[in-house]
């Protein structure tokens, strides 16, 4: 049953995300939609999804699809703009803005998918500083699987209860985090989960955290 729910939501995320990239309809229809979109954007929660080459496909697509269907606007950010590929499939995502081109004030929440991408992200000082400042702002930060690696490098996990994929447990504990092997951990403004099977509760927790701040 859990597998069915995960697959259904994952496909919903893919369809929703892909739909946002199409250009169908007449010029008038597209212009009307653009105006309506601009009006909606002013009041809709803004979500930053931070990733790069080697992201885990479901851990990116599923929160994106879920949160878009909850009337939130998604901006994919990374060290460089352009198309990047998942490490575990042929799925790709376009990084829309560089981390250095955005401000914390632009967003209500930061999401860090896992995979191999976090290991690359943590090597970029601009990315690490952005993650550190975002966390210290008190706004919700959500990381799944290897995502907490970026926060470990940012030095914000000391004394914080967190989870993540089991293979990074020692790494998190070395920086002072209190690791728990649970599907969902929430400590202050930090939301963490372990693996793709935890995505339903992870995505829901992001939604609830954003609502609580507005």
Task: Give the radius of gyration.
Answer: 17 Å
- Spatial strand sequence of the major β-sheet: 5-2-1-6-7-11-10
Number of domains: 1
> How many strands, which pairing sense, and closed or not: the largest β-sheet?
7 strands, mixed
- Series of secondary-structure elements, N-terminal to C-terminal: HHEHEEEEEHHEHEHEEEH
The residue fraction in helices comes out at 40-55%
Number of helical runs?
Answer: 8
Note the beta-strand portion: 15-25%
CATH topology: Rossmann fold
CATH class: Alpha Beta
Descriptive keywords:
214 residues; alpha/beta; Rossmann fold; 7-stranded mixed beta sheet; two-stranded antiparallel sheet; 11 strands
Which helices and strands, and how do they pair?
Layout: H1 2-19, H2 27-41, E1 46-50, H3 57-68, E2 73-78, E3 82-85, E4 92-95, E5 97-98, E6 109-112, H4 117-121, H5 125-136, E7 141-144, H6 148-154, E8 161-162, H7 169-174, E9 178-179, E10 185-187, E11 190-193, H8 199-212
Parallel strand pairs: 1-2, 1-6, 2-5, 6-7, 7-11, 8-9
Antiparallel strand pairs: 3-4, 10-11
Helix pairs in contact: 1-3, 3-8, 5-6
Give structural notes:
The radius of gyration is 17 Å and the shape is globular. It has a single domain (2-20, 45-212), classed as Class I glutamine amidotransferase (GATase) domain (Rossmann fold, 3-Layer(aba) Sandwich), CATH 3.40.50. Helix 7 links the parallel strand 8 and strand 9. The strands form three sheets. It has a seven-stranded mixed β-sheet, sandwiched between helices. It has a two-stranded antiparallel ribbon with strand order 3-4. A two-stranded parallel ribbon has the order 8-9. It has helices at residues 2-19, 27-41, 57-68, 117-121, 125-136, 148-154, 169-174, 199-212, and strands spanning 46-50, 73-78, 82-85, 92-95, 97-98, 109-112, 141-144, 161-162, 178-179, 185-187, 190-193. With 214 residues, the chain is α/β, with parallel strands linked by helices.
